[in-house]
Amino acid sequence: MAYQTLEIEIRDGAGFLWLNRPELRNAMNDVMIGELVAAIAELDAEPAARVIVLGGRGKAFCAGADLNWMRAARDFTPAQARADSARLAAVLRGLYESAKPTLARVQGAAFAGGMGLVAACDLVIASTEAKFCLSEVRLGLIPAMISPYLLRAIGERQARRYMLSAEVFDAAQARDIGLIHEMVAADTLDATVAAMVVTLAAGAPGALGETKRLIREVVGRKIDDELVADTAARIAAARSSAEGQEGMASFFERRRPTWSPEPPK
Question: Which distant-in-sequence residues (6+ apart) come within 8 Å of 178 by Cβ?
Fold first, then answer.
């Protein structure tokens, strides 16, 4: 599928999904949001993409909402506003619930909805030059659609500060509060992302998806008989699956499992 605002590359075991409006710092509009829904589904169905890497072309990851789109949204009816918000919700949920590991590659600004994209991904590697901000309250708005992912990523206490203050903060602070996993120099960002893709691709595709589902469905639950039975059933199913059988066989036979890529030379 051809996209106006995005670019997709399938290489090195990953599907690279690039926000491609560099002249506008990859600000999101209705076209980009609709295309993101389709592109995430496309990469979910692409066997050659073991990992989905979300990045931004140019100097910014995503500066939030496009100003022209925001201007037009002032005249939306309540029904139009809800439908518009639902499309962004579908993008965030698509990243969060994808059966494949999602990795955000962040440089420059990741503001407002852009910060929501970061929070919805499983892993985040950012340049030391990255900047983050939840600017909504300064526009009389609220970070509603992105809040479930931000709260899971950084916790309620940190979210209270940054949602209410609208401060701009740097990559070091983002790492300290748990929004990003690694902070690296700009000239090593792509190499670090590539190394993480190799690491993630060593996992069995089905097991990766089931592990993501396990995390979503276990976090916050009370440890009781029901949860113990649930987790026992999950590991039993994994052991008897084709992947589980192949994984254990390859371990005892001291060979690579069938899903594992060739090690780099």
Answer: 153, 154, 155, 158
